[in-house]
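Q&A FORM
Asked by: J.P.
Topic: structure of Phosphonatase-like hydrolase

PROVIDED:
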Amino acid sequence: MSSNRVNLVVLDMAGTTVADGGLVEQAFAAAAEKLGVVAGTADFDSKLDYVRATMGESKISVFRHLFADEAKAQRANTAFEEAYGDLVDGGRIAGLPGARDTVEQLTADGRTVVLTTGFARVTQDAILTALGWQDLVELTLCPADAGGRGRPYPDMVLTAFLRTGAVASVADVAVVGDTSYDMLSGTRAGAGVVAGVLTGAHGRTRLEAHGAGHVLGSVAELPGLLAELGR
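REPLIED BY: S.T.
REPLY: Here is the structure written out as tokens.
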């Protein structure tokens, strides 16, 4: 039975709580080069368009689509994670304005916050370390933590629901992200609140078309939305 209060908030990282400044595209370019996909070619442009269209999806799933051979997909994913990690280590990442304060406010209000990503665990940990967020929340999840399937599947949201035990019903979960895949994962999980933010990959029209019940300027508006909804 739902308590009608959102006591579990599942937040995406890159584009939602973390500003990555186009690092996904830069890391993809580095990975593609290692696999012989030359920047400026039609093949490269086509693959980059797919990366942009699938922001939020598990990166290994993206590479499996782009490189039908599993070994090639694994090499591309490894190269991507290494390139992204180098960019993070170079200080090329920051928390979005108000993101940390929002997480701390939600926690102070008695809500459990979980941070999720489409990146591998090693990259997620590198981002958390770079931001000093290792102890910001009690649980962080990547696709491998939820059986290997990332967004748009609902698995990470449902794993957060099961592992935290913070709510009795998925109706008392809020899912927030910047991509259409974030919205799909929230709606497919049955989350009571599914909200898009305009600080990342996709705009209002696309977010709403894929299930966003609310669209916020940034995650900093989330506590106000929950108060307005009485959730």
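FOLLOW-UP: Residues 70-89 form the longest helix (20 residues).
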